[in-house]
Write a structure and sequence with these properties.
Helix content of chain A: 25-40%
Shape of chain A: globular
Order of helices and strands of chain B: HHHEEHHHH
Largest interface: A-B, 21 and 20 residues
Order of helices and strands of chain A: HEHHEHHEHEEHEEHHEHEE
Number of domains of chain B: 1
Oligomer: heterodimer
Radius of gyration of chain B: 23 Å
Strand order of the largest sheet of chain B: 1-2
Distance between the termini of chain B: 74 Å
Distance between the termini of chain A: 80 Å
Structural class of chain A: alpha+beta
Number of domains of chain A: 1
Largest sheet of chain A: 4 strands, mixed
Number of strands of chain A: 10
Strand content of chain B: under 5%
CATH architecture of chain A: 2-Layer Sandwich
Number of helices of chain A: 10
Shape of chain B: elongated
Number of helices of chain B: 7
Helix content of chain B: 55-70%
CATH topology of chain A: Alpha-Beta Plaits
């Protein structure tokens, strides 16, 4: 079979047109579908979130059970130098967290109330956007902002990007600073960034995060925000709650009852 | 060659000195020694056949690591039908190879391999010592 140059170019052009047409059609088809809703047919798609009741939390002043439980479970070193310290869950004065909400008349006791803070597991996490190696990513099935410490190169872009200061960098080997090593969880190593993982290792076994389990006042409520029947959704429906810096558009998933 | 005697003597001493490591190892029997890892006393069956594990355990562990961390799948179906949790410390070190120093380290040291697994993953013996 003989083919002229003109015919060849014609056929190539038609093929390219057909291919691009297929892509356009696919986009037009999928345009009105949006996010798949959670239905009985798709129960696996969760969105984990947490509600922190600061009033219940204030009942026992000086209680740090949630922090201790986390430190023990995840081999978190206690380093005295604040520039080197590692934090997954920590406490900050209430007024620091919600400075834009408070009035000048808020009492100092309330202002200074230590409030638990951790990674917000944002809907649109800025840390994930900037990570050059894919060491941190948003897990599609349940919305956790995960970390693969094997992949982290310690560039600390994520720390610069996180507006909540939820990430810590290992400036030194953490092992000498861990009082009791827990063999069930790895430590991290020098040069790696770490943060709260919502206890993904416990969620995999169907357990609650260790901070939630440790709270005697049940001030921390953990649950699926996509499930309208869940405890957390019921509590969120009945009271006014705050999130940290929602105006930044990251969609934080930790809610605070003020 | 008036200094023949001195030259040959010097040569013999020189050769003897630079080949000293070879003589030393042959005389102490070190060259014929393998790494001799201590196999676990109890369980006789690993998660995969012995030959595969010997040659490719690092690939399997890397697969486990990616599957657990990236896909959130934690159980491993072995060829013998048994299911194991993919967990270096929890399954390998706690279940069978309870003596890391005599099993993992011996071979790695022999082969001159330095692995960074243990920079983070905890040897249960180390944890037991630290909690005392």
């Amino acid at each position: 079979m003989k083919i002229t140059r003109k015919e060849f170019l014609g056929i190539s052009g038609a093929c390219l047109l057909a291919l691009s047409g297929k892509k356009v059609l696919a986009v037009l088809d999928g345009a009105d579908q949006g996010e798949p809703e959670q239905t009985a047919a798709n129960p696996a798609r969760k969105r984990w979130g947490m509600l922190i009741d600061t009033k219940k939390c204030a009942k026992d002043q000086g209680c740090t059970r949630c922090l201790q439980a986390c430190d023990r479970a995840h081999n978190i070193p206690s380093i005295a130098n604040p520039a080197h310290e590692i934090k997954w869950i920590w406490e900050q004065p209430f007024a620091d967290l919600f400075s834009s909400y408070q009035t000048e008349y808020l009492g100092s006791a309330r202002k200074q109330q230590p409030t638990p803070v951790m990674c917000n597991h944002c809907d649109d996490p800025s840390c994930v956007r900037v990570c050059p190696t894919g060491a941190t990513w948003k897990r599609e099935e349940d919305g956790l902002v995960m970390m693969d410490w094997h992949r982290c190169i310690g560039c600390r872009y994520c720390m610069a990007a996180c507006p909540y200061g939820s990430r810590s960098f290992n400036w030194e080997d953490p092992r000498p600073h861990i009082a009791a090593l827990n063999a069930e969880y790895p430590t991290r190593t020098k040069g790696v960034v770490e943060k709260c993982t919502f206890c993904s290792e416990r969620l995999a076994k169907g357990q609650m995060p260790s901070c939630v389990e440790a709270c005697p006042e049940k001030a921390l409520v953990f649950g699926d925000l996509n499930d309208s029947q869940s405890e957390i959704r019921t509590l969120l429906a009945s009271q006014y709650t705050l999130r940290r810096k929602p105006e930044l558009g990251t969609g934080p998933n930790i809610y605070y009852v003020a | 060659m008036r200094d023949r005697g001195a030259i040959y003597t010097g040569l013999v001493i020189f050769l003897g000195l630079i080949t000293f490591p070879v003589w030393h190892n042959i005389s102490s029997g070190a060259t014929s020694k393998g790494p001799e890892p201590v196999l676990p006393a109890g369980p006789k069956q690993c998660v995969a056949p012995l030959n595969y594990m010997r040659a490719s355990h690092m690939h399997m562990l890397m697969d486990w690591r990616n599957t657990v961390v990236r896909q959130d799948v934690h159980s491993f179906q072995a060829l013998n039908g048994k299911t194991y949790e993919m967990n270096l410390t929890g399954t390998c070190l706690t279940g069978c190879h309870t003596n890391k120093a005599d099993f993992c380290d011996r071979c790695h040291n022999y082969a001159g391999v330095s692995v960074y697994c243990w920079d983070c993953h905890v040897d249960p013996k180390l944890a037991a010592r630290s909690s005392k």
